[in-house]
Amino acid sequence: MQLRLVVLSILWGMLMSPAIAQTVTGPQGEKFTERIVARQLSDPWEITYGPDNFLWMTEAKGYRVSRVDPATGSRNVLLDLSKERHFPRYDKIPDSVDGGKPWPQGGLMGLALHPQLLQGQPYVYLTYIHSFEGANQPGKGSRPNHGGNFFTARLVRYEYDVASQTLRRPLVLCDTIPASNDHNAGRLLIAPVAGRNYLFYSVGDLGAGQFENGGRPNHAQSISSYEGKVLRFNLAPDADATPQTRWIPNDNPFSTKRQSAVWSTGHRNAQGLAYAVVGGTGRLYASEHGPFSDDELNLVEKGKNYGHPLVLGFADGNYNGLAAAASEHTDLPGPWHTTYPTIGSEQANANALGATYRDPLATLYPLNHDFLTTVLTRTRAHDPDEPTWNSEAPSSLAVYTATAIPGWQNSLLIPTLKRGKLVRLKLNDNGTAVASDTMMYFKAPVRYRDLAVSLDGTKLYLATDSATITSGPSQDAPKGTVCKGCILEYTYVGGGLATNPSVADRKTPSPEMALREATTMVQKLKPKDRRVKRAGLPPAQRPMFDLLLKPVLTAQEKTEAQQNAPALLTGLRQQM
User: What keywords does the record list, in alphabetical order (predicted)?
Assistant: First the structure.
């Protein structure tokens, strides 16, 4: 196995060498050349293609903002914020020294460039985590009884000085945004509402209810909290009397008793925000991590509620009786030992939320109730055979609106962490639904963190993590991860189809095809993996799993296997 990983790393390094022109082909016949623009970065979090034709980048752990020349890879640091981080680099300190204190998920995160950056409005907006409640406490610095890790983030506007190539004159918009070691989201986006530009900021639910934050209350449904929300700020201060409210638009939907930046509620971990005009109407989209399944693509609207943690994915009932997490900590509340609420009925919860509730546009992927019950039950029991599950862990989002690549116009582009790929979903003509099947590009042993598209739409830039794991569904880094902390360039050079396969075109395999695929999947598994995959299946499917391990089947066994193969194949795919 170790030799295989070494060979894979060598081959990938050769393919990505600038000296060797390598072409990759997409599922629709699109051809791209690939190369490494930059490497050995300190966890690039945000890459934005600027109006100056440079890539603007934040490094999450390095706390640096840089401009990168995409042609040469050369970069200059515009700003070093490490002195504004009032806690050490815990990721570099042995646990025996710092007590095991956590690094926040992210660090220096989102970046947004003013649309008139080079035309008299030289503003760059940044968000970063600046303080940790437990920094001076013994041990991990966490609150007791799995109460969580309390960090605080800051939203700041800087001015870009072209002559000195620096960001200067910081102006704080808000420095009390709650943060955590989990689910900080942290994307920034400038987008118009009624013809005026605003700054949107996604804040996750801070992992409240899972892992070290299992006892932390979840506030995604509370309009008085910024946790689990999309926020909206002014790009410039208004005429309000107090500095704290001048950056908050007066017409935000929840500014009743006091002004609030909350724009929408019920989000879990929206690491992707994107805006596009589709069918003549501008729309704001978000990509979100699901708990065990149901990664979400949402159409974000003013004052709307996206359900978390009461509805996960569609209100289809697959989480009925379950929760967004489970733990072995019996001192935590509920049957699943978490502050995430137990979901009696997703449909009833959606009805109770009323007219403001919104289902997602699409999910990746809705697993069935039996499989999810197995996952949570075994997690609660801390079972070593806890099954894995099929999810993507979407880390960002872009809407491709150019015409350069056939069939791509008005597609959602979603980089993923869990299995290193770019997912493409074609929108319908008015941008209100997904019209195509899921298409996968640039699969590689990396964790894609962010995406930028050149102004002409011919080049795609993907940033990769330096670290190999985080938490939750995204923790399973692609085996043999290489090119850590890189920016990769994919240039479209030809090919492709003007049409996209629709969801209705998806073919259900025949029993014979399902049996062949399921048999191949089962027999390729190593003994330990077989045990885990078998444990993740509903009890009724486990004898069929065992049957497919036999080298030869009798005629009766083959008939029985064909009858049950489609259901077994579905169960196996859920654990891919």
Answer: Signal
